[in-house]
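Slide 14.
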Amino acid sequence: MRDYQRSKLYKWERMEYEWDDTILTLDQCQQLASSIIPFIEVTDGRARRSPCAKYSIRQICMPKFSRTKWSVIHECAHFIERDKHGPRFVGAYIELLSEHYSRDIDQLKDSAGEFGLDFS
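Slide 15: predicted structure.
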């Protein structure tokens, strides 16, 4: 499956959450991830250039620069929907963002739609 909206999603994230560049501790990342996906481990992602979700071992790798709230939520959304950055993933991600940022889900959907993102 082609990851046709990955770049567009990353640009949308930067636009939506550029104000939130607070770096969390690894423990804070773990607490947030565990509140979304039970029994998940957050590791430091040492030597990685980007965060990642490892489904088979229920692990999220978070290099220090990427330890923002929205980035942890992004990686958790990969455990809910595994269509890369496709419509189901974006839909799940929007729901998690709404819940964990107390943002209006319709506003997030409107913003994503205006940006040209497909979601379900």
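Speaker note: The chain has one domain: 6-114.
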